[in-house]
């Protein structure tokens, strides 16, 4: 769009030639100049320069819609977990980025697999009746588990093996194990979405490749890393909006030092990838341990939902939730402490007060 | 009084030609005819005409800047005619001097999830509150660069606002006003633009003056956020600064000429200073000059605080707020606005 | 460089101008610097006539030598020193804003540049009963703030209104309208603004960097040229009309992390006096202290790097005791 050639934006041939002499060929090149620079390269007076900028802008600027028009075509992607759906206002919002973060083994990948199954379901059953793009950077995707979830969660629908295999065929897995590969994949994803008819994008996980390749203790690396992450985020947001589909990402955890915001003063565990990344995701769900079997899901950042905590277990049919969930006192989603496995004792099965745990 | 031709808003090549032909000052050009000038300075006739128009506009005793000149007294009267946009949080209103100022630019900075977008959405609804309820009955242009505009949330906030106003109805005027203040009209008066990168954002801003002339009731422009598109794809930071400076001037000019409030959000970034890291608003030091007022939302444990960091008429204040299911509110429970629809799903910050 | 025109001086008629132009002589400068004898031959004009023309042109366009004593006399009679209304700043400025000079305030966001400008404007218009031109390029000016400051000075509404009327505001947002406005002022509108009592004694531009900074940098020097134009017109206006020019500038951070005024080295020669304003607290947390420090970083009268502290509340000091203070106590808890 922005890289559209000036010629196609209704700029006269003479002017195109004139601008080409200054290596200005696309709308982006021209709009990145200040008005005085435009006067200079186009040899125009300031009034005519702003006319030129306006006409080029017309070719680039996205359309204006009213919220009412959008509201009429609004729908959510149900997570099939009624309590979570209720809090999130119907499910995962289309066109936005939802992040699931938490310690390993807590069910992030399970969540992704379950959502993949849901997306392929027909619309009459609350699904999207579409394909899924599944970018797997941890080699954690298991087709066997995918089919298992499908068959045990919806035994009536996936009763026959053929249907289950058909479902699995609609989940397109891309295994990308380096940062560069992930980026390349994202840049080409537009084509993949069209060809596979995808209605859901899953990136599991954002953090693993990035954290593997960038040692942030080295100077300059942090900068490079955040550039890369914001590039990823903007590409995903672009795709989410253009195709009006939900995007689900997973993230890892890190130890936050310095004690800022924690009462203890010592380090605690929180979502990885830093503050800037936290801005990029629209919704952040944190999964954490309660005891050996019980897990919790926290809504840590959401434009619609309040801070809430829900208990769940991982069963054969994926994630199962009981209860309606409770509210908790939330804080900065970038600093929300996360409970990890090492913090509880297997022998001690004494139940604890939920809200107390989340406050640490 | 001689004015150099270099100071005219003409193309640099035309100015060079004028000077080469010996026309250093505008006085030298005053009595010339276009054809004569085009011959003498080897300009095209069209260029020559443009030169002369520029010179006459300036030299003719001047209506050039006169239209924008007014005394402080005139300005005061103008300001008093402009009402502010109330936030539904009386404490924040008080800190802002009565609400969000129309005709000014305001920036909200803050950590992720602290409520920047919430405040934007709240104000996008608030600006539409009819005049008889103390609002300004305007429309809003919402430029979303992060994909964080959530309709579901707007509907929640709008429903709460409509309900709040319907409880206040006392006279016929207000009853009539309520018929056109519904969730549906609120949504139809919200113009949404989704920009994916800074080029689209800049393009949109070039077109906005025309859009505003066509929609004279627009009283609020929201850009959520300025930071996101400008924090990527920039190898050359000086170019970014230049573009941001230009953008700031464009916004201020629009805010002034269309009597519109401009609300922008900015992210926070970590800066190392003297071995200590601290959270500062992103986009650099120079950008800090751009907004007229700066509001900083931050966490203090589980409390949310809003601090006024820069403001032309108040030296600053800090207030506590909460985000409820109805929107951005005071923490004080005794407020009428809260009792309307206090549900279980309230993010109470507690005291 | 002024183009030769017929009738500029006796003897310079249309035919001669045409002939001179044919010989490559188009401006006064050309005439003055050419060899008259050779020129007379080439244009077939009498040497005497040309010589006379040259003498007249020289007399018309040359600068006059002025003796230092005369200059001093003139300075004494015309220069005024305007108090800013704030004792600490006055002390730093030794002892106020000088007419005929450009004074610059620079500082980071929220450092109080605009507040100082408002205070100065109010002080000059109310206490000194003189007119002020206030050019606002950032949209930061609110008349209600000016009124608030005036209310601290007097409770007489009529006087407040009269003072407000002496402040003339221009709101401009790009460099070309700024130039148009400044040239317009210099071309006579400055005197017109005096109507309503008191002559214009100060021109305040808040901020000059807001319109110039977007022009600088990149692969062009047009922006630099425009900046010099702004500087030039400000300077001559200050000199010719004996007004004090007060401009504000933003700050940039040098490689070493040190704060310095923006707009680069070329601009740094323009203001005669530069003051850097800073917030007192260094930490990230937002305390609402109104105390600022001002450092003199360029001056021809006092040694540099003198630092003074002052309170932004000074201009509305009685305000602070009443509602202002209460407000802060209320919300600061």
Strand proportion of chain C:
15-25%
Spatial order of strands in the largest sheet of chain B: 4-3-5-6-2-9-10-11-12
Instruction: Strand order, main sheet of chain C: write it out.
Output: 5-4-6-7-3-10-11-12
Helix content of chain C: 40-55%
Task: List the quaternary state of the chains.
Answer: heterotrimer
Subcellular location (chain A): Nucleus
Organism (chain A): Zoarces viviparus (Viviparous eelpout)
Protein name (chain A): DNA repair protein RAD51 homolog 2
Keywords (chain A): ATP-binding, DNA damage, DNA recombination, DNA repair, DNA-binding, Nucleotide-binding, Nucleus
Give descriptors for this structure.
heterotrimer, B: 351 residues, alpha/beta, nine-stranded mixed beta sheet, two-stranded antiparallel sheet, 14 helices, 21% strand, C: alpha/beta, eight-stranded mixed beta sheet, 46% helix, elongated
How would you sum up this structure, described in words?
The complex is a heterotrimer of chains A (360), B (351) and C (333). Chain A has 360 residues and is an alpha/beta fold. Chain A has 14 helices and 14 strands. Chain A has a 9-stranded mixed beta sheet, sandwiched between helices. In chain A, strands 2-3 form a two-stranded antiparallel sheet. A two-stranded antiparallel ribbon of chain A has the order 9-10. In chain A, helix 7 (108-120) packs across helix 8 (143-153) and helix 8 packs across helix 9. Chain A is globular. The termini of chain A are far apart. Chain B has 14 helices and 12 strands. In chain B, the strands form 2 sheets. Chain B has a 9-stranded mixed beta sheet, sandwiched between helices. A two-stranded antiparallel ribbon of chain B has the order 7-8. Chain B is globular. An 8-stranded mixed beta sheet of chain C has the order 5-4-6-7-3-10-11-12, with helices on both faces. A two-stranded antiparallel ribbon of chain C has the order 1-2. Chain C has a two-stranded antiparallel ribbon with strand order 8-9. At the B-C interface, helix 3, strand 1, helix 4, helix 5 and helix 12 of B face helix 7, helix 8, helix 9, strand 5 and helix 10 of C. Strand 1 (69-71) of chain B pairs antiparallel with strand 5 (167-171) of chain C, so a sheet runs across the interface.
């Amino acid at each position: 769009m922005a890289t559209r050639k000036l010629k196609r934006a209704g700029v006269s041939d003479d002017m195109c030639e004139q601008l080409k002499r200054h290596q200005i060929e696309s709308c982006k090149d021209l709009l990145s100049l200040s008005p005085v620079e435009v006067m200079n390269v186009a040899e125009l007076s300031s009034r005519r320069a702003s006319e030129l900028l306006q006409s080029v802008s017309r070719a680039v600027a996205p359309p204006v819609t009213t919220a009412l028009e959008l509201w009429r075509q609004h729908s959510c992607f149900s997570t099939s977990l009624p309590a979570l759906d209720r809090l999130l206002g119907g499910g995962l919002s289309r066109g936005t980025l939802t992040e699931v973060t938490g310690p390993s083994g807590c069910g992030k990948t399970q969540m992704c697999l379950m959502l993949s199954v849901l997306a392929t379901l027909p619309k009459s059953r609350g699904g999207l009746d579409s394909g899924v793009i599944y970018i797997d950077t941890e080699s954690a995707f298991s087709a066997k588990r995918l089919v298992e979830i499908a068959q045990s969660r919806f035994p009536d629908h996936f009763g026959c093996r053929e249907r289950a295999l058909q479902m699995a065929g609609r989940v397109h897995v891309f295994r990308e194990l380096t940062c560069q590969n992930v980026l390349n994949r994202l840049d080409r994803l537009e084509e993949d979405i069209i060809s596979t008819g995808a209605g859901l994008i899953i990136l599991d996980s954002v953090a693993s490749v990035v954290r593997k390749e960038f040692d942030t203790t080295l100077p300059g690396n942090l900068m490079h890393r955040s550039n890369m992450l914001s590039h990823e985020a903007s590409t995903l947001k672009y795709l989410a909006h253009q195709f009006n589909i939900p995007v689900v990402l997973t993230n890892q955890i890190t130890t936050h030092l310095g004690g800022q915001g924690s009462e203890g003063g010592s380090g605690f565990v929180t979502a990885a990838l830093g503050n800037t990344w936290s801005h990029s995701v629209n919704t952040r769900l944190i999964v954490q341990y309660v005891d050996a079997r019980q897990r919790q899901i926290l809504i840590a950042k959401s434009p619609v939902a309040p801070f809430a905590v829900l208990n769940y277990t991982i069963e054969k049919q994926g994630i199962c939730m009981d209860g309606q969930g409770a509210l908790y006192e939330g804080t900065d989603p970038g600093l929300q402490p996360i409970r990890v496995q090492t913090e509880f004792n297997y022998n001690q099965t004494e139940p604890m007060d939920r809200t107390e745990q989340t406050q640490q | 009084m001689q004015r150099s031709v270099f100071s005219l808003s003409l193309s640099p090549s035309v100015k060079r030609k004028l000077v080469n032909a010996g026309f250093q000052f505008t006085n030298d050009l005053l009595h010339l005819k276009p054809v004569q000038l085009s011959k003498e300075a080897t300009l095209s006739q069209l260029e020559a005409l443009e030169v002369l128009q520029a010179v006459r506009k300036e030299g003719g005793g001047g209506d050039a800047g006169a239209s924008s000149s007014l005394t402080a007294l005139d300005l005061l009267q103008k300001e008093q005619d402009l009402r502010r946009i109330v936030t539904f949080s009386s404490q924040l209103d008080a800190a802002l001097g009565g609400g969000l100022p129309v005709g000014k630019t305001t920036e909200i900075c803050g950590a992720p999830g602290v409520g920047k977008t919430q405040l934007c959405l709240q104000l996008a609804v608030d600006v539409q509150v009819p005049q008889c309820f103390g609002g300004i009955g305007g429309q809003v242009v919402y430029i979303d660069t992060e994909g964080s505009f959530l309709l579901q949330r707007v509907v929640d906030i709008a429903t709460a606002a409509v309900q709040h106003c319907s409880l206040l109805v006392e006279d016929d005027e207000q009853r009539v006003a309520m018929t056109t203040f519904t969730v549906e009209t609120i949504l139809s008066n919200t113009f949404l633009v989704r920009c994916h990168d800074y080029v689209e954002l800049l393009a949109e801003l070039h077109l906005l003056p025309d859009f505003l002339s066509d929609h004279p009731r627009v009283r609020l422009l929201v850009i959520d956020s300025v930071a996101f598109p400008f924090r990527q794809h920039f190898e050359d930071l000086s170019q970014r600064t230049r573009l941001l400076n230009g953008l700031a001037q464009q916004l201020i000019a629009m805010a002034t000429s269309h009597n519109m409030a401009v609300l922008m959000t900015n992210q926070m970034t970590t800066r190392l200073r003297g071995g200590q890291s601290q959270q500062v608003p992103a986009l650099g030091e120079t950008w800090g000059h751009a907004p007229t007022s700066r509001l900083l939302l931050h966490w203090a444990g589980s409390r949310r605080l809003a601090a006024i960091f820069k403001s032309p008429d108040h030296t600053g204040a800090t207030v506590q707020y909460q985000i409820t299911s109805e929107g951005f509110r005071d923490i004080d429970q005794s407020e009428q606005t809260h009792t309307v629809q206090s549900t279980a799903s309230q993010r109470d910050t507690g005291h | 460089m002024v183009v030769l025109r017929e009738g500029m001086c006796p003897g310079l008629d249309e035919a001669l101008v045409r002939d001179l132009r044919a010989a490559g002589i188009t401006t006064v400068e050309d005439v003055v610097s050419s060899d008259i004898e050779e020129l007379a031959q080439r244009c077939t004009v009498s040497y005497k006539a040309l010589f006379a023309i040259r003498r007249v042109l020289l007399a018309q366009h040359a600068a006059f030598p002025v003796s230092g004593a005369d200059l001093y006399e003139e300075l004494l009679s015309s220069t005024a020193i305007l108090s800013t209304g704030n004792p600490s700043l006055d002390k730093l400025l030794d002892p106020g804003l000088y007419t005929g000079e450009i004074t610059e305030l620079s500082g980071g966001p929220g450092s109080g540049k605009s507040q100082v400008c408002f205070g100065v404007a109010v002080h000059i218009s109310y206490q000194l009963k003189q007119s002020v031109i206030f050019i606002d390029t950032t949209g930061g000016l609110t008349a209600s703030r000016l009124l608030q400051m005036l209310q601290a000075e007097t409770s007489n509404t009529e006087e407040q209104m009269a003072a407000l009327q002496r402040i003339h505001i221009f709101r401009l947002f790009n460099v070309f309208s700024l130039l148009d406005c400044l040239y317009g002022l210099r071309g006579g509108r400055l005197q017109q603004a005096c109507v309503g009592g008191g002559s214009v004694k100060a021109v305040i531009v808040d901020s000059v960097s807001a319109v110039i900074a977007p022009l600088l940098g990149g692969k062009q020097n047009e922006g630099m040229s425009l900046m010099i134009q702004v500087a030039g017109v400000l300077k001559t206006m200050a000199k010719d009309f004996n007004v004090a020019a007060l401009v504000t500038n933003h700050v940039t951070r040098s490689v070493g992390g040190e704060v310095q005024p923006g707009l680069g080295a070329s601009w740094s020669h323009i203001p005669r006096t530069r003051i850097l304003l800073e917030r007192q607290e260094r930490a990230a947390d937002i305390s609402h202290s109104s105390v600022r420090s001002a450092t003199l970083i360029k001056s021809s009268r006092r040694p540099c790097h003198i630092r003074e502290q002052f309170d932004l509340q000074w201009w509305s000091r009685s305000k602070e005791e009443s509602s202002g203070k209460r407000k802060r106590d209320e919300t600061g808890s």
